[in-house]
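Putative nickel-responsive regulator: structure, please.
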Amino acid sequence: MGGLARFGVSIEDDLLKKFDGLIAKKGYSNRSEAIRDLIRKNLVEKEWDEKGEVAGGIAIVYDHDKRELVNKIIDIQHDSHDVIISSQHVHLDEHNCLEVVIVKGGVEEVEKLADTLRSLKGVHHCTLARATTGEKL
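Here you go.
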């Protein structure tokens, strides 16, 4: 990170009040930290839009009693070893498991993996958390 630059921002009073409320709720120490975070968030979204290399996490909740489903999830993960860099399996209760898969690769590969997992019969929930490799921030 280089030096810091100062600049002014013009903003409507009502919007500033809402922003200050958000800052307090999220626990930012000041407006600058919140603005930097918003900029980074938009840069990460841009990385995904540009179809470059990205990182993220796929969270899957499913019924582990369905052995065929469990085997499909395992097979898909093995077939995607070039994109998956880590996974964690958690037993939520007697029947439901949460699998968190950490991914790094091209946007299309990562989204295809998430879509494939999401479309499996017996998956209760599947979500993709978009993150960044950090190289473009």
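Notes: The mean pLDDT is 95.
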